[in-house]
Request: fold
Amino acid sequence: MAWTYSALEKAEYSTMEGAKKTMSRLEPNGSSRYDLFDPIIQCPSGGLQRIGSSGEGGKFLCMETIAETPNCVVYSIGSNGQFDFEASILSSTNCSVHTFDCTYNGSSINNERHSYHKICVGRSTETRSSATGSLQFMSLADITQMLGHSKVDLLKMDIEGFEYEVMSGLDLKSSCAFPMQISMEVHYHSLYLFTSFHNKPQYWDNMVWTMHQLSLAELAVFFQHIANLGYAIVSRDDNPLGRGCCSEFTFLRVEWPARCNS
Reply:
């Protein structure tokens, strides 16, 4: 395993004699930083199926779990005008699909079962300033309430670092509506690189971990949070194009409060 550290993770301190010393934390390099987070469960029926593009952006999902669900609902967060994932879901299931992206003027690709919402998903419902103008954010709980969904069968995210904000905004009080399956690209460096917030510190007040390279310990806290919400990893697919920055993970919900069964 290769090990490295980033200059951003170096710290300087003074000895009792007044000398300046630096210390650095060694971290697994590239995709090996995700090696503690391999899948621990399998799909309950059938196997994993790749949905979407054959290259970057495709997702490995437990499709039988979704396809067998009547009136299934799929949320796709992050689009930038690319709808390969939505088109695959629409062609392979009877689900209704909702795309959310406040940074792009999109439209429906299927009038009967697909809706496009110019909304970004965050920890709270608010309007934020960005280099490209005002952006509307909503919490996942407020979105499900607005759309009248008591549950979401699949949540897909490709949002360049905003996944930390979305997941930290999940509130156990609304846990009965948590997605049954979550597929997202997780980044440990180059967060927000392809967004209008990159290198714009004047817009960072409401953002999580801007210009920061996540340590293995910080990733472990994030994955522990997801486990505490009731999810287990069913798929990991490292991004071959991102210099180890990111990996695609799919989680299945394996635990939920008893009150959700009533």
Q: What stands out?
A: The CA atoms of residues 56 and 88 lie 15 Å apart. Residues 45-254 form a domain with the Rossmann fold fold (CATH 3.40.50). The mean pLDDT is 85.
